[in-house]
Amino acid sequence: MPPGRTASLSDVVVVGGGAAGLSLAYELAGGPLSVTVVEAPDGGPRPPERTWCYWDDGSHSVEEAESASWSRLRVHGADGAAVTVDPGPLRYRMLRSTPFERLVHERLARSPGGRVLRATAGEVRGVPGGAEVRCTEPDGRVLALRARHVFDSRPLPALPPARTHLLQHFRGRYVRTAGERFDPAVAGLMDFRVPQPARGLAFGYVLPLTTRQALVEYTEFSRAPLSTAAYEAALDRYCREVLRLDAYSVDTVEQGVIPMTDARFPRRVGPAHFRIGTAGGATRPATGYTFSAVRRQARAIAAGLREGRALVPPPHGRRARAMDAVLLRALDAGRVDGPEFFVRLFRRTPPRRLLRFLDGATAPWEDVAVGLGCPVGPMLRTALELPLLSRHSPLPAAPPPPPAASPRGEESDR
Questions:
Q1: Higher model confidence: residue 190 or residue 47?
Q2: Average model confidence (pLDDT) for the chain?
Q3: Does the first or last residue of the chain, that is N or C, have fewer Cβ atoms within 10 Å of its Cβ?
């Protein structure tokens, strides 16, 4: 191994240039703290372009990097009936990773203490006054990068024990049609007009960019991912039989897997070493949405550091996590009809309250109001059962095929 060298001390090292790492760097750039972002070199482990979605009222959006946004949301039931809602002033927003990365890199370049290091991060260990990240640069040289605080967004090698282990897995196509086939004012979040698996649920997902362009995905909540051929067959059927797209071209594809679990994710793994993003529990267990929590977490970390405190707050409150644990278990046990559950949620809940509920931002009385619209009997039975269940590691499974583009969560988000 080539001899190593030690870099100068930074205030903060952010490991990983995905949604969580970039969001934290975005909040810290231009401030009083020196920040180094360690990103994987081109090729090898560096992921391709990703799509991230979230809802926001504009107060914390990054419109400079947005690809599109929608004022209305639509859900289709298995019977074809549509529910269209307007959650104003909230809008559903899409970011692609490339323009967001460019925006963050430009902010870091303008910051006296900001920089991006292209290297493969390895072990993080505690040292006096902080932590050290051992990195390998593209030319093979080893660099020991020291900081007062290290925030690590790399995926965990294995998920922690949990009572329920589901996956949200998907494959999507950015399609282009000859005629005007899409309504660019409406985002199709869940379309249940697809065959359902024996356990869990499946749906289509349509985000129109123009009247002739859209991201079209097939998604499942289940225990194991599919083969690429199975995703392609499901997408072919959805595009042909449901969306009635007779002829279209495919610009790019994306594929990913998001954990949906009630596992407990430790956020502090050393005196100066913290986990953020999905590795720190930012993915909402019952929906797979991550980006909103990642941005919220990044703002809180940055505010704490500016006040001299290093902390990573829980991305979701206890009440939200408890409700998610019940829903995940009920879906996995087959006690609730997934498509019917989500359609009913959109049909019976005021749209702005629903999105706030999905973001874990509702008051207790609002949670009760939402809960009364759910199948009370199966959910109550599941809630009583959960304390009796032991936590276990997920069963080993064959790894999914490598993504053709990248996931939405951390590193993907719906």
A1: 190
A2: 90
A3: N
